[in-house]
Structure formats: structure tokens, C-alpha cells
């Protein structure tokens, strides 16, 4: 018998919206609370200067086909490209309208706490209007989805000697454009995908701009190798099958060749940057090379030695170099905040199955949006989480027994700890292909079924093409095979015949060597 539940969704960003849609597909009743007046999370319109939000020139770092949900692909015949924040915001509004989500959202409402009901049945969610915090209301729900996102609380680190610094310290969460930095002497800390744009823009208008990094973060160009395909076109099953040892070796050779034979100064500079990183794939991949162009034209200098201390108007690096500065921009990410939960203490999302289900909470309270792939997109991972949770609520899927669930959590956390050695502090990181493939098995929506080989063209696209979310709508609950297959076949494959043959052969050889102990084998997710 299918169970129908009353479910609370906290947050109307991308993860909250897909959670609502999947719950409705299963016939559940949904109420969503959101702090903001508009849906979209960090992509919403009208974010204040003191709130995290998209900056004016935001261009997404993965393509439209990876940012879009599989149940609502980009418009027909739209080429594969990078959406702006405005385009993605419109997509989210169109998505909400298409599935009747807007009327389920209660905007300008803060969730103050989530706690088990005294009766032991369900959860009490306490809310208050943003404009009247004292007007508290308690609501009863069968289950709760926390999808308030990972980009809410900026990580404002304290630097040695910061108390002596007399200049301005800000965080990239509040960055909108480079005008406030015109003519300034700016120190930027950290380099991620947002930072790549922030540093790029500031360097063009500042009197001087210095980038301080602790590590040489892996950088991927938006269009690798100056080819016409965006970077996520290469997230294929074929490359996923290539053992890490072989992929790392191939990348090192490619980097050496790129430093010398790259077609442009920027491509050679990317290779030079990545040559400092001996474990390229063990990091989050910064899929935005914008700042590299400023290194090339000399408007940006880089120091990777670390900061010794700040002075009133300067910074001293650990290599002895000193720079005069008046402004510091922290590109230092965000911290997790789960304090609204009263029944469990969570410090690490890897304590949870699939980064979403804590053993002490089970399916009562789940987290959607805390799986961030090193390559690929958060929306795709959130969609799989939402599909699974909706089926759990309906009783069509069940959690593994407690002992087995505990073992799965430990094994998958150990895999992620071992794999992402380059960014041990980024606990939300997942391996896109492994995460999605394993989830497809749990949900029952794997694209790989015997009948797929009756359609060689589809099999070719599934093996060599990008693993866009659409591939997980071919089969399983709420599948849309006809439309999913058609859209998959419309997307061009990024690899040529020689590359496909080489990659497949290298996979076979490396796996054979791994079987006899001559090459390190990949871990088991």
C-alpha cells in the first residue's frame, strides 16, 4: 500500500524545488518555507548586499544540460552552453510554474527549529514571519526536508595579525561587481569557481591584485583544449571506467605537452598551473579558468607560500615577500549550520547515507543539496536524492537495515576521504559518476539494461557521451523514456574515434594490471 505523507520542505532553491516536485509525483502533501521573498536560493532576484547571492556577471560553470533537471530539460534545440544567473533563475521559475510549486511556498518565513513530536509521531516545525519574529507558529509534519543549501553562512576565517589590519575585509558571498575595488590594492584568498571570476574582475580594475592560495587547485577550462565542447561534455561512462592511476598518468603527460605546445598563452598557463598538482583528480575541479588570463597579462600575481601575518597596511607571506594592501577578499567558502535540528548533532555530512540520511533520523528528516560533485552539478545529485526520498516516503523503497546502513555510510565516507585528499575540508564533495550510478541502482533507474544494446546509437551515447541527468529518466519510477532518449541523442559526443579507442584500450590494460597487483586499483564506493 502506498503511503501519503505531509512533508515540510525548508528552502525554495534548486534543491528544495526538485524535492517538492518529486514528492508531488508520489502524491505527498508539501509545504515549503523560505526566508526570501523570491524562489531560487542564491539565484533569486533582489538579494541584498549583505546577503549571499549571485554576482552581476555570473556565468554557470557547468552547461545547461547538466544544470537542468532530467524531468525538465532545456528548451528544445537549445545548444549546449553556459547559462547566466538570470537565465538559470528564469529556468527555476519556469520549472516551478510547470509543476505547480509556487503556490506551495510560504515566502518570508524563517524556520526556527525542527524537533520530534512529543507523541513520537512526526515532527514539529516552528516558524515565524521574517517581518515579525515574535509571531511563532508550530506546524506538525510527517517528515521534513532540509534544503536550505550550503551557501548560507560565509566562512570568514581569521588571519594572523588581522586585528592589526586597518583596511577592509569582505567575503566573495557579498560580491556583486568589481567597482568597489577600483584603484585598490587587493589581496584575494582562495581560488574556487566563484573566486575565479571575482579575482579575474578585480584584477582588471585594481591598482594591484595578489592571489594567495594554500594549494594549486585543479583547474579545468570551460572549453578544454580550445575545443567546442563544454567541460562537462567529458563526464562520460567511458572516462569513469578508466582507473584513476591511468587517468592521472594521462593527465600528467597532457600537462607536460600543454605547457610547451598549448595553442594559446592561456592554455599553456593552465597547464603550468596544473603541473604543480600531482593528484589532479583528487581535488574539486575548478571549472573556470577566468583568472588565468590575468596571470598571463600580468595584472594578477600568485603566492602559494601561505600568509605569515598581516600588518596595518600590508601582508607578509611565508616566503618573505611583502605586499602593500588595503582590501582583502575572502574566497573561503561556507560553513555548515544544522543548529535548527534539536534531536541530533551533525558535524559532517559524510556521517549521512548519500549525504542525506542520518541513522538517528532515518527518513523523518533528510538533507537534500549537500552532495557537491567534483565534476557535474549539484542539481543532478539533488534530483536523485529527491527521487529516492519520495519513494521512501511512499513505502516503495526502504532503507537498508541499521547495521547495513552504518556499514554503507562508513564505506562511502572512507571512499570519499581517500579520493578527495586534495580538499579534505570540503566534506560535501562526491564523485559524480560513482555517486549517480550507485544511486541509480538503489532507485532502480539505471540506464544500463539489456534492451539498450538493441539500440547501438543509444548505447554509444550512454558510453561515450556526457552523463547528463537525462540518462536517469530512461528507466525506473516516473521515467520518460521517449523524450529522454530523444534529447540524449541530440547531444554531440565530445570524443573522436581515436580517443574512444585509446581510452577503451587503456582501461582494459590498466584494469588487467590492477588485477595482478601491478597498478593500484580504484576503491569501492
TrEMBL record:
It comes from the Bacteria. Pfam families: FMO-like. InterPro entries: FAD/NAD-bd_sf, Flavin_mOase, Flavin_mOase-like, FMO-like. The keyword NADP applies. Coiled coil: none annotated. Transmembrane segments: none annotated. GO terms for molecular function: monooxygenase activity. Gene3D superfamilies: FAD/NAD(P)-binding domain. Keywords: FAD, Flavoprotein, Monooxygenase, NADP, Oxidoreductase. Belongs to the FMO family. PANTHER family: DIMETHYLANILINE MONOOXYGENASE (PTHR23023). This is Dimethylaniline monooxygenase. The lineage of its organism: Bacteria, Bacillati, Actinomycetota, Actinomycetes, Micromonosporales.
Amino acid at each position: 500500500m502506498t503511503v501519503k505523507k505531509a512533508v515540510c520542505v525548508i528552502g525554495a532553491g534548486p534543491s528544495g524545488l526538485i524535492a517538492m516536485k518529486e514528492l508531488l509525483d508520489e502524491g505527498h502533501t508539501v509545504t515549503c518555507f523560505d526566508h526570501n521573498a523570491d524562489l531560487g536560493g542564491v539565484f533569486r532576484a533582489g538579494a541584498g548586499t549583505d546577503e549571499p547571492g549571485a554576482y552581476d556577471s555570473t556565468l554557470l560553470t557547468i552547461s545547461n544540460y547538466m544544470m537542468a533537471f532530467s524531468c525538465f530539460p532545456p528548451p528544445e534545440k537549445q545548444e549546449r552552453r553556459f547559462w547566466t544567473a538570470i537565465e538559470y533563475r528564469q529556468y527555476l521559475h519556469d520549472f516551478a510554474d510547470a509543476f505547480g510549486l509556487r503556490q506551495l511556498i510560504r515566502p518570508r518565513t524563517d524556520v526556527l527549529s525542527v524537533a520530534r513530536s512529543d507523541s513520537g509521531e512526526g515532527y514539529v516545525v516552528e516558524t515565524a514571519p521574517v517581518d515579525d519574529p515574535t509571531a511563532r507558529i508550530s506546524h506538525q509534519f510527517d517528515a521534513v526536508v532540509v534544503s536550505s543549501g550550503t551557501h548560507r553562512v560565509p566562512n570568514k576565517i581569521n588571519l594572523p595579525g588581522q586585528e592589526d589590519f586597518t583596511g577592509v575585509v569582505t567575503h566573495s558571498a557579498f560580491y556583486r561587481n568589481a567597482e568597489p575595488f577600483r584603484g585598490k590594492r587587493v589581496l584575494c584568498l582562495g581560488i574556487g569557481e566563484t573566486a575565479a571570476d571575482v579575482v579575474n574582475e578585480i584584477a582588471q580594475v585594481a591598482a594591484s591584485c595578489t592571489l594567495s592560495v594554500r594549494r594549486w587547485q585543479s583547474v579545468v577550462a570551460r572549453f578544454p583544449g580550445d575545443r567546442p565542447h563544454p567541460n562537462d561534455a567529458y563526464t562520460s561512462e567511458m572516462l569513469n571506467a578508466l582507473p584513476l592511476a591511468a587517468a592521472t598518468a594521462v593527465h600528467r603527460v597532457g600537462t607536460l605537452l600543454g605547457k610547451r605546445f598549448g595553442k594559446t598563452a592561456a592554455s599553456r598557463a593552465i597547464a603550468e598551473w596544473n603541473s604543480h598538482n600531482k593528484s589532479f583528480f583528487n581535488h574539486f575541479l575548478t571549472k573556470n579558468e577566468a583568472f588565468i588570463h590575468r596571470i598571463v597579462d600580468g595584472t594578477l600575481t600568485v603566492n602559494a607560500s601561505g600568509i605569515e601575518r598581516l600588518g596595518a597596511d600590508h601582508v607578509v607571506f611565508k616566503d618573505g615577500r611583502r605586499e602593500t594592501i588595503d582590501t582583502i577578499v575572502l574566497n573561503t567558502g561556507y560553513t555548515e549550520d544544522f543548529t535548527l535540528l534539536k534531536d541530533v548533532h551533525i558535524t559532517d555530512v559524510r556521517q549521512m547515507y548519500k549525504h542525506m540520511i542520518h541513522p538517528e533520523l532515518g527518513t523523518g528528516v533528510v538533507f537534500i543539496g549537500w552532495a557537491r560533485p567534483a565534476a557535474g552539478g549539484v542539481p543532478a545529485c539533488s534530483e536523485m536524492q529527491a527521487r529516492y526520498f519520495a519513494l521512501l516516503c511512499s513505502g516503495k523503497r526502504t532503507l537498508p537495515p541499521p547495521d547495513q546502513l552504518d556499514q554503507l555510510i562508513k564505506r562511502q565516507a572512507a571512499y570519499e576521504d581517500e579520493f578527495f585528499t586534495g580538499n579534505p575540508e570540503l566534506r560535501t564533495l562526491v564523485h559524480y559518476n560513482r555517486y549517480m550510478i550507485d544511486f541509480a541502482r538503489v532507485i532502480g533507474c539505471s540506464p544500463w539494461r539489456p534492451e539498450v544494446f538493441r539500440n547501438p546509437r543509444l548505447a554509444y551515447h550512454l558510453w561515450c557521451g556526457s552523463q547528463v541527468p537525462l540518462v536517469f529518466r530512461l528507466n525506473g519510477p516516473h521515467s520518460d523514456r521517449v523524450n529522454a532518449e530523444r534529447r540524449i541523442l541530440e547531444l554531440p559526443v565530445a570524443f573522436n574515434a581515436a580517443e574512444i579507442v585509446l581510452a577503451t584500450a587503456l582501461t582494459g590494460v590498466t584494469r588487467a594490471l590492477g588485477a595482478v597487483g601491478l597498478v593500484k586499483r580504484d576503491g569501492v564506493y
